[in-house]
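User: Structure please.
Assistant: Input sequence and predicted structure:
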Amino acid sequence: MEIKESSPAGMHALENEGAIIIGTSIRNSYFKEKNLEQLLLWANEKLRPVYFMIPDLPAVNTLMACGETKENAEREARLKANSLENKCKAIIARLGFTNITILRWRDLVGNLQYLEAIVEIKNAYAADSLFQGELRKTTVEVISQNGSHDPTDAEIDMGVVFLLEELAFISRSTLILEQEGTVYVYHKTMQVLKDTLEGRYAFQPDSGVGFLTVN
């Protein structure tokens, strides 16, 4: 695993024992067992808390935006998230890791800092036309890659919820996880996340949150 891109806050967190958050996606073929093991090995070597993030509940909105019924979307998100969690648990057990926590969205929905972040990011989305435009553009790209039709405005509205929920958590992860610094790790750079963490929109991240692109 090599660092391909980073933010200043991300490198600061990495160099100063900040917590590592490994981002995943339930429909992304990148997250096969070999790559998961390499990511976890890389993170475990840093000797600090590691969170393996599975955005299962937010993914329901993306699946529905791609044309799935609510029932089918909930079922697919649950089954694929369970499969991803089981792969991660098997790797953790086999390699004897002790500092890795698997994070499902049910662990966040009652967190006050997360709930406050959700309110703030939704208000920013309504008020900041640049932020709104970028989130909708990113959502259209995701739906177009996973769906079989051009998304309607209603489907885009639904898909945007995924990004709002994921960005709210990542941007305030220091507060939510009670860490001085956090670094979000993903295998490719998410431009809207990068811009959010750089403070380009009305919704402002915590200063201790950064990102790394690692693969």
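The chain has one domain: 3-214.
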